[in-house]
Amino acid sequence: MKEKADTAILRCVNEFRVLFPDRKITTNTIVDWCGGVGSGKTVRRILVRNYEKKGKGKASYYQRRLIQEKRFEVINAGKGERLKKMVVNQRE
Q1: What is the DSSP pairing of strand 61-64 with strand 81-91?
Q2: Which of 66, 87, 84, 64 is nearest to 74 (CA)?
């Protein structure tokens, strides 16, 4: 069974990040690293969907997106009043 291009490229990006944690993830770097799994356009589309783009043009690179978890906690405000407080947690 063949692996989909999206999953293959994301797997390559994860391997690249583990082996070279100090290097920036760019479209051209991943195209070269994947060995022709996808075109530059395909790699860019997948990176834009799954990572946060930094910079513009040739200087652009991608970083892991921070995932925000929002939840509401009910707190007592005194005299029987109850307020909702939003709590935001960020993680990679």
Answers
A1: unpaired
A2: 84
Cα distances from 39 to residues 20, 31, 32, 77, 79, in angstroms, run 22, 7, 10, 57, 63
Amino acid found at 6:
D
pLDDT at site 30? 94
Instruction: Report pLDDT digits (tens) over 13-55.
Output: 999 999 999 999 999 999 999 887 888 899 999 999 999 999 9
Which residues touch 84 (CB under 8 Å, ≥6 apart)?
A: 72, 73, 74, 75
The pLDDT, as a whole number, for residue 1 is: 65
